[in-house]
Design brief:
Layout lengths: L1 H21 L2 H6 L1 H13 L2 E2 L7 H4 L5 H8 L5 E4 L2 E4 L14 E6 L2 E6 L3
Antiparallel strand pairs: 1-3, 2-3, 4-5
């Protein structure tokens, strides 16, 4: 029983971190789909939670909006209300995003890190 509760908490923590990443300044500056969805959602008051149930890394872990609500209860950056997800802080687009991006190139298990500065 206790193992099952811990397992569920781990899953919800991973989902929370994933959704926080999707709505992070860094991701919204790069990800066109999430950024467009977020931009459209600002006028309507938030991103519908079912948007995240279509995202592969979320849908492989959970299947209901209630689980998203539960996962976001402990978020410092996001809140859940009326079936929608809101950022607690306004989006601050990054103008120097490429300057702090690390590209990882993998070739037969040899990893090369390339730091990009502009």
């Amino acid at each position: 029983m206790a193992e099952n509760i811990e397992h569920n908490e781990r899953i919800l923590r991973k989902v929370r971190k994933q959704i926080e990443f999707y709505l992070s300044d860094a991701n919204l500056s790069k990800d066109r789909v999430t950024c467009c969805t977020y931009s459209e959602a600002i006028s309507s008051g938030g991103i519908p939670a079912d948007f995240f149930l279509k995202c592969n890394r979320v849908k492989e872990r959970i299947t209901t909006i209630a689980e998203i609500e539960e996962a976001l209860k402990t978020s410092k950056y996001l809140q859940f209300a009326d079936g929608k997800v809101f950022r607690k802080f306004p989006f601050q687009p990054r103008t120097n995003q490429d300057r702090c991006t690390i590209y990882v190139v993998c070739s037969k298990f040899v990893f090369t890190l390339v730091l990009v500065y502009s």
